[in-house]
Amino acid sequence: MEQPIFTTRAHVFQIDPTTKKNWVPASKQAVTVSYFYDSTRNSYRIISVDGSKVGVIINSTITPNMTFTKTSQKFGQWADSRANTVFGLGFASEQQLAKFAEKFQEVKEAAKLARDKSQEKMETSSNNSQESGRETPSSTQASSINGTDDEKISHGGPETAVLMSENDKLKTTVEQSNTNAKKLETELQTLRDSNARLVDALTESSANVEMWKKQLSTCKEESDTLREKIAELESQCEKANVEKERNSKLTVRVQELEMELQDKEQELENLRKQAEIIPQLMAECESITEKLQAAEVKNKDLEDRIEGLQADIEDSQSKQGNVKGELKKFMDVLDGKIDELHEFRQGLSKLGVDN
Predict the structure, then answer these.
(1) How does DSSP assign 79-119, residue by residue?
(2) How much is the pTM?
(3) Are the C-beta atoms of residues 79 and 63 closer than 8 Å to each other?
(4) How many CA within 13 A on the CB side of residue 229?
(5) Is residue 127 within 8 Å of residue 138, measured between CB atoms?
(6) How many Å apart are CA 35 and CA 4, to the nearest integer?
(7) pLDDT for 276-320, tens place per residue?
């Protein structure tokens, strides 16, 4: 008769059973995490099933003693003494984490109310049995006036035996519940100590992350290449609260960045040494600029001369065109004279033949 009352998606982690410090991912990707309510038992559970593995990742019954702790902006955890582990959930946003934590508190309060009601019922039944037990001696005293002990048992036997058996059962139940409560308190204290150690480790890790962020932010001002690597490191540092098992990889990465920083500092030192040559280069540049200006002046003079020569060439070309026109006229006149002489010669030759 269990029904889901709240569902979300998150990355599921479990505490490493050996070290009790590192988180072990229980799913390769974000999976569905749901709150279920069992109306027959009046209990609440958190259940998550990985579809790729077809297996249950989380099966945690919520008790009033449980506490959901937010360890970062997108990560939260709670301890389950029955499962003997600590569950961690990494969410995609702060809003999802806030909704899950709020629902956890509501379910915890509901579980507490259900426990209180059950205890009230047990106390009521215990009081009823005690009142019945108080009435029994009076009846036995009344019967003892006229009979022996065997007669007492024969007269009030069935009711007294039932009440005594119920009373013994209730005493056994109360003693067992007290024993279980002590065990749960011990386990809860152990889990609180473990949680405190985890919080200290996370705080120390967060402090280390902040220190690396400051160092990397100073390196951003020196190199554009290092900015990209620092941004990558910062993104890895932000995920460090979710995936603490990658701390070793981050440490190696930071060492590599320190080596690269040393190389960049060496390059900057070389650039500073090269920068000392810049004044000499500026002086040479100024002298070259002066030469260029002188060359531009000479070039301008040559351009003026070229313009004059082009004007002279144009004048000579125009004069040459005039001469060609006059020469053509002269050639036309000469051709006419030659034609006349040729005709005159033919005439003379005819006259010679006639004579």
Answers:
(1) EETTTTEEEEEE-SSHHHHHHHHHHHHHHHHHHHHHHHHHH
(2) 0.38
(3) no
(4) 22
(5) no
(6) 6
(7) 888 888 888 888 999 999 999 998 989 998 998 989 899 888 888
